[in-house]
Amino acid sequence: MAESKSLRKPVFTKVDQLRPGTIGHTLTVKVVNTKMVLQKGRADGPQVRQMRIAECLVGDETGMIIFTARNEQVDLMKEGTTITLRNAKIDMFKGSMRLAVDKWGRVEVAEPANFNVKEDNNLSLIEYELEEEIWKLVCSTQKLRLSLQQIQQNLLVAPPSRWWWLIKEM
Questions:
Q1: 23 and 103 co-located in one domain
Q2: Structure pTM?
Q3: Which residues belong to any copy of the Single-stranded DNA binding protein Ssb-like OB fold domain (predicted)?
Q4: Tens digits of per-residue pLDDT, 16-41?
Q5: What are the distances in angstroms from CA 11 to CA 8, 14, 73, 86?
Q6: If we measure between CA atoms, which residue out of 57, 83, 78 comes closest to residue 68?
């Protein structure tokens, strides 16, 4: 008889624990307000598909952050509604954090939560100018280190007569 796998329970994150460039967050938040920033039709074959983007201020008892709702997500983001975001990620927009859920995540209306949103801790107001540049530099450095390791391994394996070819490939 096959053993059934039990699903892993989600670990819920609080808003004040969110950091730039992180992914895989599950959190329950209340919608404080919603502002439509883009609404236009887009030709998609024989039919016109509506594209909508709204910036929604959401939060919990630890703080608030702007959630970028797209298309059908916009319909769920009504003021006062409690929402569960699964597999959410932090995008950077003009140096500040934005919460988003792409096709790999889910936005669901949840049971009304019994917390008050902490409105004096808006994480989207914090600017991360240097942080973003440092992150890019760290990623570039890691790629360079991997490339150098590969070159070193190739030089160790290849005879000296082939080194010129390996160096030329750099």
A1: yes
A2: 0.68
A3: 18-109
A4: 999 888 899 999 999 999 998 887 77
A5: 9, 10, 22, 10
A6: 57
